[in-house]
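Z., the sequence and structure:
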Amino acid sequence: MIDWTALERMRAAFLAGTAGAADYWRHDADLAAYDATFAQRIGWKWDYVLAELKRRGWSPPVGAVMDWGCGSGVAGRAYLDHFGMTDVKRLRVSDRSVLAMEYAARRAREKYPQLQVVVGESPAPAETAVLLLSHVLTELTQEQIAKLVELAAAAQSLIWVEPGTFEASLTLIAIRERLRGLFNVIAPCTHQSPCGILAPQNEPHWCHHFAAPPPGVFTDSGWARFANLLGINLRDLPLSFLVLDKRPTPAVPPDAARIVGRPRIYKGHALLLGCDAAGVSDRRMMRRHFPAEFRAFKKGITPALCRWKLEHADIKSFQAWD
């Protein structure tokens, strides 16, 4: 049974920007309600990111995984769902809320009985092979973010997922630039160059992408109630993310690029904000040359990763990078 009143209270704190002031978990029932709703939507974003990493040929390092700011533990469980337990020596869940840590640990043990789950932040951050960070920026001060970046710098690899807002994106970009000398950039970028969003002409833009919920969500009465009660668009799952690794990067095709946001569709052409080693800028795709892609764009289907050949700003060849 979902406590809808608790969800309304949490949603109000999220919207007001006061969620970081104090714990919003009061009882296990709060965490259970959150885990069945808000956390599922975060989990779909993690599915998007982790599926892309597998598609790119990235595999996790062997060692301990830390889910920092774990909440109900959805990030850690999603990671295990995608990559399994073989390379995971232990899962550590850490949160300011003792109630949340205990809930996250219990859910992980229920799903993975053979897994060693440790509660609390590690006294030795360097033991962390993979650091998972999820939807924490909106609840931290600048000083707390700086300390978190220091923690991230000690890990071997980092997977960080945030809401796809302008502010969260630019914060992740700043963190990328700060850590780029210590890590190789795995995603969302297809290159190791400075972030092209930071160019003066790209001031209105931010690096964001869109995950897709499972199709069954749209015919489920519980999700319909969730959307109506809390004013949430179930189809809208924007995210920003950052994946760094101190190991060498998987091979990237030289013509690889990333489409940022969604294409802007006009009568005879579409503008795709493309990111590659040359920077971030609009690329024009003519409808008469790419009718199938145009139809897919209109349906909201856009491959985030692609390979293209360009002539000035015009796309001359295009294919999804699988």
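The chain is about 35% helix and 25% strand. The CA atoms of residues 196 and 280 lie 5 Å apart.

Let me know what you think.
H.
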